[in-house]
Amino acid sequence: MTYKKNILVTGGAGFIGSHCVRLFVEKYADYRVINLDALTYAGNLENLKDVEHNENYVFVSEDILNDQGIEEIFRDYQITDVIHLAAESHVDRSITDPLAFLKTNILGTANLLNAAKTYWKDDFSQHVFYHVSTDEVYGSLGPEGFFYEDMAYDPQSPYSASKASSDHFVRAYANTYCLQTKISNCSNNYGPNQFPEKLIPLMLNNIRNGKPLPVYGDGTNIRDWLFVIDHARAIDDIFHKGVANETYNIGGNNELQNIELVRLLCDLMDDKMNQDKGTSQKLITFVKDRPGHDHRYAIDNTKLTTTLGWEPSVTVVEGMKATIDWYWDNEKWLRNITSGAYMEYYKAQYSH
Ligand code: NAD
Ligand code: TYD
Fold it and tell me: How many CA within 13 A on the CB side of residue 247?
């Protein structure tokens, strides 16, 4: 079969990537989705069990740092477009190993841009390089204000510095070589399949097992939470309808202090576990703060909602309930991950 597009999705075995792959595979039978992933600690093909036999889905094990391998994939699969999600994504890990972030997030992105530049050179207008990025590139907000698309970058962690740099490379390739690019900067995601060292799955796992709930600092840091499926829907809208070489902020207007969020999770889990309200909150433990901890992130999503008509499909309570149900029903998925290397990481991260 000849496909209308052969879309290379990088990082498709990860959290957001797997939801993005599923949406494109199921919604667009006339596209072939080539999922390229190095299957690092964060990549898990279990996330895509339900679509792995679809005819328009292919998995390729590759590292975005391998320039030759990437070029071969462009050639072998006649890649027409890229949706680039592969990255080192955890701020705490970037504090312990910043160079790993520099390599994957900056050099890896540049490798993909180079392959696109080489392979698409006859007509860049027929191809899109979509780079998935984070709102953390804008830095840390005080109590007022929002992140706008035209704001100056001010990254504060090795993770956000590496993502900011990769965004700059994408814009530089658009400007210098006429590559057609799109960038989105999204707020914190939550939902099924998130690796359990991130805040929400970590808390849900610990609540279920009666373990302490480690809240960094005084818990007043604010994040703007978005259900992962709504992020995948926004990527679909921007990929198809977004203006070339523009940037879109994605967020659901759900600002919560970390401590408010953890209390909400505790209350919802008390319901789920048929225990008295307040039981899980007793597990909350304030621990040493993250160095350089960004205080507040908040997205202005006006451009996305007004120009592309995107809206979040769930409220934060609906999304959190769906997430709790998913983790509850998929204990095996969680257990497979939270053993071995995960426990080593956990001990090192929370021992002080
Ligand atoms: P994740 O850590 O769950 O998944 C990353 C995936 O990339 C994994 O499958 C991993 O195996 C793969 N990968 C890592 N290094 C690779 C390499 N060198 N070559 C090939 N594959 C590699 O991350 P996520 O939370 O799903 O984030 C996906 C993207 O979205 C990232 O670019 C991240 O910066 C961005 N983002 C994430 C959030 C969030 O809240 N999680 C918010 C905004 C933007
Ligand atoms: P995280 O999920 O790591 O996302 P990010 O740092 O990219 O926003 O953390 C979300 C927030 O939760 C952040 O302010 C740090 C905080 N946090 C804790 O308080 N305790 C934890 O154990 C973790 C992992 C995070």
Answer: 22
For the Cβ of 183 lying below 6 angstroms from any atom of ligand 1, the answer is no
Total tally of structural domains belonging to the chain:
1
Q: From atom 4 of ligand 1, which residue's Cα is the shortest distance away?
A: 14
Q: How far is the CA of 83 from the centre of ligand 1 (A)?
A: 12
Length of the chain: 352
Largest CA distance in the chain: 65
How do residues 7-46 score in pLDDT, each as one tens digit? 999 999 999 999 999 999 999 999 999 999 999 999 999 9
CA–centroid distance, residue 10 to ligand 2 (Å): 24
Note if 135 is an active site residue.
yes
Domain around 154: 5-193+225-253+295-314
Mind listing the pLDDT tens digit for each residue in 39-85? Answer: 999 999 999 999 999 999 999 999 999 999 999 999 999 999 999 99
Question: CATH number for the domain including 48?
Answer: 3.40.50.720
Read off the pLDDT of residues 118-134 as tens digits, 9 standing for 90 and up.
999 999 999 999 999 99
* Encoded tokens for 39: 């299957």
H/E element, 328? helix 316-329
The protein residue with its alpha carbon nearest to ligand 1, atom 15, reads 87
DSSP state of 170: H
Mutate to test the pocket of ligand 1, among 8, 9, 10, 15 (most ligand atoms within 8 A of CB): 15
